[in-house]
Amino acid sequence: ENAAQMVEDKVGPTYGNYARKAATGVSSFAESLQNKDIDELIDDTRNFVRKQPMIAVGAALAIGFALTRLIKLGVDNDNQRDI
Predict the structure, then answer these.
(1) How confident is the model at residue 47 (pLDDT cuts 50, 70, 90)?
(2) Which among 16, 17, 20, 39 has a CA at the least distance from the CA of 28?
């Protein structure tokens, strides 16, 4: 909610609403993950990939990009500490 409010303050209410909807979706997704065991998660993932392969590939690319950026940021921070 705080991030959505910041977005709204900086770029307007339309984008604030998008941020709130995204936060609600992430929260719902997190709750559903907590309520499932690993076998259910694997089955759900397989079914999703079969039904939406292009979205799955896009999500994998986005996650890979984000992880790469985080790792690079961590390495850059470690290098600055060594100087």
Answers:
(1) very high
(2) 20
Kindly report the number of other CB atoms within 10 A of residue 20's CB atom: 17
Give the C-alpha distances (Å, rounded to integers) separating 32 from 29, 50, 54: 5, 20, 23
pLDDT of residue 83: 58
Average pLDDT over residues 58-81: 84
Question: What is the rounded distance in angstroms from the CA atom of residue 43 to the CA atom of residue 28?
Answer: 19
Lookup result for tokens 């209410």: 13
**DSSP structure class, residue 36:** S
Say which residues have a Cβ less than 8 Å from residue 48's Cβ, sequence separation at least 6: 55, 56
Residues 22-39: tens digit of each pLDDT = 888 778 878 888 888 889
Residue with tokens 């997704």: 29
Tracing tokens 């936060």 back to the chain, one arrives at: 23
Distance CA 5, CA 55 (A): 29
